[in-house]
Amino acid sequence: MGYASLMCGRFALFTPLDRLAKQVGASVPESSGKPRYNVAPGTWITAVRQESEESAPLFDDLWWGYRPKWAKGSGNQPINARVETVATNGYFKGAFARHRCLIPADGWYEWIKDSQPKQPHFICRADREPMFFAGIFAEREDGSLGCAILTEPARGSAADVHDRMPLILDDNSLAPWLAPDITDRETLRNMVKHIDAGLIEHWPVSTKVNKPAEGQGEELINPA
């Protein structure tokens, strides 16, 4: 499955992990994390997961590309899963019930449709606070963990750029999303909410974002 056909396909994370740890009740990691302004699929990304009901959430590095080991290397490796079908799709539903995670971000990139050259926009919270994308993960054939970010129909100003956006959870939804003991779809639906659409804004940025190997610096999120 091609990365370019899906969304969200690129994001930024530069808020120190010790600050994020307080929001999710996780232990402060030894490293505060290196700022990344152009996180691409097929790389290790920072995520938060919870191993058991008794344990606290923890930071972990997950491979951005979801392919459970039972697929035996022959299945697709999507970077996104649609919130409308993730609980019923056979490829994802086991992870949705038992292996949910949070992917922290300060914003994500999306491209104006049919623009030439492809014009990226940086989309973030208007108050510049970090956000947490809802994700799922599964063990891969090599024993590592791979993840996918859930997406929903675009809301607010994000719809100006693309018809999909990451599922961004509000603060009260972080704990239930991680909770391993909550496996019922309807229970999750009643407990988990996305952030208000009015919090989202965007602006055009440099086309250097289009090539992760060439663009990685803080200047990427500056208005073009």
Automatic annotation (TrEMBL):
**EC id:** 3.4.-.-
Superkingdom of the organism of origin: Bacteria
Q: Does the keyword Chloroplast apply?
A: no
Question: Which UniProt key words apply to this protein?
Answer: Covalent protein-DNA linkage, DNA damage, DNA-binding, Hydrolase, Lyase, Protease
Per the similarity annotation, which family is this?
Answer: Belongs to the SOS response-associated peptidase family.
What protein does this entry describe?
Abasic site processing protein
- Please report the organism this UniProt entry assigns to the protein: Vreelandella titanicae
GO MF annotation list: lyase activity; peptidase activity; single-stranded DNA binding
- One BP annotation, GO: proteolysis
